[in-house]
């Protein structure tokens, strides 16, 4: 078996290649593993690398050394290759995927010594307009915040958690809070103004937001929270509760749909969608649970639904 570290040197606003190299050498020294590394050069490069390696047919374990976006790129590359599995060494900005395993286990992901021989979990994936997403697909002000996080991360003296604060402030103070869309869930067609539409496979996004505590990575169900158009003052009141998974306190504005598929349409190309932090814009989106599974390896004895309530 081959172990391949795919390292994003821009993840988290800090180059951690030296730390990753030391980790790789430790695995080789302790366990006589075949370990290689690749450095990403641009957005999408992790997908190219992983697809090329997985296509050889050799059994391989990939280590996504970056944030949720790096993991997302590798997942999209290897999902059709049963010889490949992936894990995450969280050195990015949000690092939300590993939070699903619980705080203590999430800390173990920072050292490949806890991962190389870990259990492989077959986990659900979200499909959005043909692209796969591991944990949460969101559209609305939260996705626009994610879009601006990338922008602020590239600026001097702004990175990590600070970039989230800057992006949230910019969107709350200076940009429209809601958009006019039509949401279709099953036979229900719901036109109106919406601030947030969050389709949850996992339970965390946005650097620790926990919108849907009942979401599971392995139950085949898509839990979608839609939040109607809000004023700035109402949004400021709702967000703390939404971040804690207490959306039910605001039944006047927030709705939960448990359905296999949800569609969002707009007369404009103004649907900003964040898939594990990777952002795209559309005039319509179809979000569903994928028939494909992610092979994700994690510390022995760990539970991807450890924080499910």
Report a brief summary of the structure.
This protein has helices spanning 17-31, 45-54, 68-78, 103-108, 141-153, 161-174, 232-243, and strands spanning 2-7, 34-39, 60-66, 84-90, 119-123, 126-128, 131-133, 136-140, 179-185, 188-200, 223-228, 254-258, 261-265, 271-275, 278-282, 284-289, 294-298. By secondary structure, it is α+β, with helices and mostly antiparallel strands.
Question: How much strand?
Answer: 25-35%
What is the element string, with H for helices and E for strands? EHEHEHEHEEEEHHEEEHEEEEEE
What CATH first level of the largest domain would be assigned?
Mainly Beta
Which percent range fits the helix content? 25-40%
Helical run tally: 7
Low-confidence stretches: none
Number of domains: 2
Radius of gyration equals: 19 Å
How much is the average pLDDT? 92
Task: Report the principal-axis shape.
Answer: globular
Distance, first to last CA? 37 Å
Q: Find the CATH topology of the largest domain.
A: Tumour Suppressor Smad4
CATH architecture of the largest domain: Sandwich
Kindly state the number of beta strands. 17
* Largest sheet, strands/sense/barrel: 11 strands, antiparallel
Structural classification: alpha+beta
């Amino acid at each position: 078996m081959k172990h391949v570290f795919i390292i994003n040197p821009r993840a988290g606003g800090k180059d951690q290649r030296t730390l990753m190299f030391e980790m790789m050498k430790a695995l080789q020294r302790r366990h006589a593993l075949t370990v290689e590394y690749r450095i990403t050069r641009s957005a999408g490069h992790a997908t190219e690398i992983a697809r090329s390696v997985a296509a050889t047919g050799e059994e391989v374990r990939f280590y996504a050394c970056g944030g949720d976006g790096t993991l997302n790129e590798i997942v999209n590359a290897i999902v059709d290759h049963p010889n490949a599995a992936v894990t995450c060494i969280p050195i990015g900005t949000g690092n939300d995927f590993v939070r699903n395993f619980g705080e203590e286990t999430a800390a173990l992901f920072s050292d490949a010594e806890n991962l190389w021989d870990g259990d492989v979990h077959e986990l659900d994936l979200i499909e959005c307009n043909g692209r796969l997403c591991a944990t949460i697909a969101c559209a609305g002000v939260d996705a626009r915040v994610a879009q601006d996080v990338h922008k602020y991360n590239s600026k001097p003296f702004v990175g990590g958690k600070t970039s989230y604060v800057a992006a949230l402030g910019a969107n709350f103070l200076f940009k429209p809070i809601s958009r006019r869309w039509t949401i279709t869930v099953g036979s229900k067609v719901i036109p109106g103004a919406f601030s947030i539409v969050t389709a949850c496979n996992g339970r965390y996004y946005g650097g620790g937001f926990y919108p849907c505590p009942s979401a599971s990575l392995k139950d085949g169900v898509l839990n979608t929270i839609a939040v109607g158009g809000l004023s700035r003052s109402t949004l400021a009141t709702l967000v703390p509760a939404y971040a804690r998974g207490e959306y039910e306190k605001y039944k006047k504005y927030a709705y939960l749909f448990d359905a296999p598929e949800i569609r969002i349409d707009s007369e404009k190309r103004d649907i900003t969608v964040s898939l594990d932090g990777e952002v795209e814009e559309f005039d319509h989106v179809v979000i569903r649970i994928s028939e494909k599974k992610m092979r994700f390896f994690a510390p022995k004895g760990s539970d991807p639904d450890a924080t499910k309530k």
